[in-house]
Each structure stands twice: as structure tokens, then as C-alpha cells.
């Protein structure tokens, strides 16, 4: 893949797509400029016609020499960009720690998808239902806290930033937006997030600008 810094990039994604967050964090980390193109569900039938892949999230990359490239599938995008920018870990063990964190985040995605699928049936007890969802993720947070304790560095998987940091930050900040004190029982997660915000100013600036969906 050619240098993205010189390309014109458009990032297409659904407005509430959880898979778009880590990609945006990676682009912020590398200070790669792009046009953000969120799509509402009502707009999708028309937008689908202009997106060659007919799938989102998708990156449309127009290079200075006229070449046009499309990238789709969020996990493939992150791994491809992670490879290009050295964000997958520098050795087997760092890659191992990286994939462990990502695996846990994907596990939480399944729980949240069940929440959204069944939410319409809980109008009368929505507060209790939300609390149960947060409580259901507790075991995942406990596992991540232990993983960060074992990680060979101050970041999620190493002493350098990897794509695991972007997956984890997106997940953690979503939970914090819905329950601000949710990290109190997890000192290693709290310490990791504080360190990341202090050492990656581009990511920290992007995080401040974000808005979150409340469950």
C-alpha cells in the first residue's frame, strides 16, 4: 500500500457502527487526514450505490497518481494499516498479547449486539436491563485488567502502541460514557488509559472531540 499521508481518504461507516471507532483512533494516532462520512440507516439505499464495495466500514483512498483503492471489513482494515505502520507488535509475544486483548473486545461485542437486539422488549425495565448488560461485561473487564498486568509494557500489548490500544480505548470509553465509575475496580485499566492519554496527544485530542451513544 502506498503512503496514505498524501492520499485523499473518505471513511464511510454507519452512524452507530461500533467497528468504526478503532479505525478512527488509528487514523488519529498517525495524524492521517480524512473526510468522515457517517451514513444513517435511512440513507443507506442511496449511499450504497456510490460505495463500490457495497459494504461499510469502508475506506476510499484516492492517491496523487490517480489510483483508486477501496478497503472494507473493519478488522482487515485495522490489521492492514497496523502492518503498514508497525502497530501489530514487534515480536511473537507482543503480537500474542495484542491478539488476546482484541479477542476479549470482540467477545464483548457479542454481548452488546444481544443488548441492542432485545432492547425493544425492555421499555418498562430499561434501567435494570442496562445495568444487567454492564454487569454482564464485568468478567471481560476482569480478564482485561489481568492481561494489562501481564503485558510487557505500559500499553495494552507492549511498551509501544499497537492496534490493541485502539480496540481497547474505544470499548472502555463507551463503557465510561454509560457508567463513569465503571473502571474503579480495575486499576490496571485505569493506569493504562491515563498513560495512553498522556503519551499520545493526537489520540487524546480526538477522544475529547468524540460523542458517545448512551445505552
Description:
This protein is of the alpha+beta class. It has 2 domains: 4-84, 3-Layer(aba) Sandwich (Glutaredoxin); 92-208, Glutathione S-transferase Yfyf (Class Pi), Chain A, domain 2 (Up-down Bundle). 54% of the residues lie in helices and 10% in strands. It has 9 helices and 4 strands; from the N terminus they run E-H-E-H-E-E-H-H-H-H-H-H-H. It has helices spanning 20-29, 44-50, 74-84, 92-118, 126-136, 138-150, 163-178, 187-199, 201-209; strands spanning 8-14, 35-39, 58-62, 68-72. Strands 2-1-3-4 form a 4-stranded mixed β-sheet, with helices on one face. Helix 1 (20-29) crosses helix 7 (163-178) and helix 1 (20-29) packs across helix 9 (201-209). It is globular. The mean pLDDT is 90.
